[in-house]
Amino acid sequence: MSDTVVITRPRAQCEGLARAVEALGRKPVLLPLLEISPLDDHTALRAELAGLDAFAMVAFVSPNAIDAAFAFIDQWPAGVTIAVVGEGSRAALARHGLTDANATIVSPRDPSRSDSENLLQALDLGALAGQRVLIVRGQSGRELMADGLRAAGATVSTVAAYRRSVPPMTPELAATLAGLIAAPKDWIITSSEALRGLMTLLHELDPEAAVAKMQQQHLIVPHARIAETANTLGLTRLTLTGSGDERLLAALQSQR
Questions:
Q1: The CATH fold of domain 4-34+168-254
Q2: pTM of the predicted model, to two decimals?
Q3: What is the largest CA-CA distance in the chain?
Q4: Could you give the CA distance from residue 159 to residue 189 in angstroms, rounded to a whole number?
Q5: Domain 37-164 belongs to what architecture?
Q6: Which pLDDT tens digit goes with each residue over 143-188?
Q7: Whole-angstrom distance, CA of residue 120 vs CA of residue 83
Q8: What does the DSSP 8-state code read for residue 168?
Q9: Do 226 and 192 contact (CB within 8 A), yes or no?
Q10: All residues at 6 or more sequence positions from 69 whose CB lies less than 8 Å from its CB, including other chains
Q11: Are 176 and 210 in contact (CB under 8 A)?
């Protein structure tokens, strides 16, 4: 296995993990597979955030949702519960001054199962019946959390805080992809959407050879849902770590 580790997070979230990978004696290569960009119009987001104290709970689907929303939040209202799906989102909240010491934060009980399904299991759904809940997310996303909360009797609003998109194929990206898949490497994949985007790009690069070469790569993924996506796409060489950079790094160390 090559010393190279391909990190596919959005560029703004790559640097800390890249430094940690380098500290292990590995060579990080940044390949952001999702571009995170601000909305053209923040009117709806501002309107929802201006009335935060009317909600019993606000759920953030990702660190990106937290960072985008807190650009418009001066102070978190007391008594409003925060729900997040993983340790990365807890770290993002901490950057904005919110921890278990000064806020009620709910996340999946098992850090290795950081997804909407396990967040719903961790919530006191009975207490949310008849209450208002806000979900802050990207412009597109799964409806499972909203559907589960509505089924429990909550009144659910959703609002977009940012846009996600797969980068377009360019000659430079084509050359980078061809070089990365030429020999087996470790790939850190932290999003099902990013993985699907990668496979779309590889089909565009070479529908047969590029995909076959990708099947020889080793994927390190933090969530069972990403592992399921990988298997559906024919990618079976993978390690499921659970949420948190420390688990991703431990998996890298075990490969040596």
A1: Rossmann fold (3.40.50)
A2: 0.74
A3: 55
A4: 26
A5: 3-Layer(aba) Sandwich (3.40)
A6: 789 999 999 999 999 999 999 899 999 999 999 999 999 999 999 9
A7: 9
A8: P
A9: yes
A10: 45, 49, 60, 136, 161
A11: no
